[in-house]
Amino acid sequence: MSTVSTARTVDWDGTDGGAVTAIDQRALPGEYRILRLASVDELVAAVADLTIRGAPALGAAGALGVALAARRHPDDPWRVRAEAERVAAVRPTAVNLRRGVERALARLDEGADAVVAAARALLDEDEATNRRLGRRAADLLTELCPGRPLRVLTHCNSGALATVARGTGLGAVHELADRGLVAEVLACETRPLLQGARLTVWELREMGVPHRLCVDSAGASAIARGLVDAVVVGADRVAANGDAANKIGTYALACAAAQSGVPVVVVAPDTTVDHATASGAEIVIEERAPDEVRAFAGVPTAPPDTPVYNPAFDVTPAALLAAVVTESATFRDGAWSVPVEAAGAVAANAGSACGSR
Ligand code: MRU
Questions:
Q1: Rounded to the nearest whole angstrom, what is the distance from the C-alpha of residue 54 to the centroid of ligand 1?
Q2: What is the mean pLDDT of residues 328-343?
Q3: Under a CB-based contact definition with an 8 Å cutoff, are residues 233 and 250 in contact?
Q4: Cα–Cα nearest to 256, from 217, 203, 284
Q5: Are residues 48 and 174 in the same domain?
Q6: Mean pLDDT, the chain, as a whole number?
Q7: Of 168, 221, 301, 336, which has the highest C-beta tally within 10 A?
């Protein structure tokens, strides 16, 4: 394991009035650099251009954005609230962003130090949460695909870079690899911004996990040809009925997986489950700039001014998923189940659904 990967994806630097530090995810894999974001404007720009991305990392960025605002405007709570709303609104699909903002904002009446402490607590919880959900997802995957090291297909990046540390979907792969149970990861490149090629492959190399990269359009045929035992991804928002929004292309992979009887497992923290959203139809899908599709790294890949459809996410219906696994609950066979040790932790969950697939 390289030493660079031990840095947190996003963090708080308490020196010089406080600032957010972030691994610059636009620069990877070519360059590993840490940015220091000292203003809310810089943080908002970093979230908008995917310097910081991935649902749990966005939650951390949201809380840290409020911490920055509280430090800059200690005597102006209205200004802090306005800045907080600006941060929360940058990306609409990942529920963690607004949740992170709200969590830090809840301490505003106690002063800036309390807001910073709330943001730092969220960061501290992230890695432990991800280790728990990674273990739970790895247990489920070995139950679904027993007796052999797995060939896993993944899409986008749900690794340490998408969280504060460790990752969700790729965290489960990390856990499986620690158990000697990964034969290969097939990583879809994830057009248009190549989070799979640039970030997931970079993380898999750091982990020392065998992997191959494929173009997104090869994923379905890899599944159909029997090259994949399980599809494992993260999520940006999971509705109460188990529908899951994730990077555009996830739905197509889930359709292919259903056709071939390959399980699709979504791995996400409780904070990504939005029980106020009844189904995936209610999830707002972020549409991004046309130039992300018309060009790559400044090089045109289509005629200029070509009209573009560029949704950043899609929704996979729960019926196509073997399970959604969080650190305290599992959605399976149409209902949420909460294991005995976590009973009471997820108030909105009910019922039990641990049947076999
Ligand atoms: O646009 P991005 O890169 O923020 O999209 C990220 C994803 O879709 C991830 O799969 C999702 O956030 C889960 S990350 C643990």
A1: 4
A2: 82
A3: yes
A4: 217
A5: no
A6: 93
A7: 168
